[in-house]
Amino acid sequence: MANQDDSFIREVNEELRSEQVKAVWTRFGSIILGIAVLIVLGTIGKVVYEYWHETSASQSGDQFLAALTLSKEDKADEALAALATLEKDGYGAYPVLAKMRAATLTAQKGDAPAAIQAFSEISKDASLPQAMRDAARLRAAYLLVDTGTYDQVSAEAEQLAVPANGMRHSAREVLGLAAYKAGDMAKAKTWFQQIVEDNETPRNLANRAQMLLDVITASGKTS
Question: Using an 8 Å Cβ cutoff, are 175 and 193 in contact?
């Protein structure tokens, strides 16, 4: 008798649960289906995006390497054309890398003003990482050593020559070179001395600075 009662109670409970499920589904079925569809679509979208991201980055990387190969083969015009395409249609960081490389090739072809302008544009692009902007600014400064004045070089590089900046060593070098070219040996000595006295200066750069300090000292033009 007890078993029959237990069986009856289970059947009643199952029936109640079934009716509750039906009621919930009738009321919220469309919402539940909508949520399920969104989850599935979200998962598909994530997979598609990851595939697209990896494929796009890979394609742009291949295009960039191909442009570098053309450059190494002294096919500057072809390399510039490939870089221009990548700058327009590339993915991720590759468009700006293409622009920087194109500016370097432009300088190598003898058009320093155009190269300086390109690097300057990159350095002023607030959407780019600061390190990339600083690198472009420094590259413009090096080109200006040969084509501009000390003040023009200083406008690009002096803000990078501070102790906290990781590019300070090269910034001080380009400032020293610009001062040396301008005939301001005292200023050149100051910049080269900062390079030598900085314990974190790369050895090859410190050696160059010391060599130029020796040349300045030997010239006697230090004041």
Answer: no
Q: What is the pLDDT of residues 200-209, one digit of tens each?
A: 999 999 999 9
Summarised one tens digit per residue, pLDDT across range 106-118 is: 888 889 999 999 9
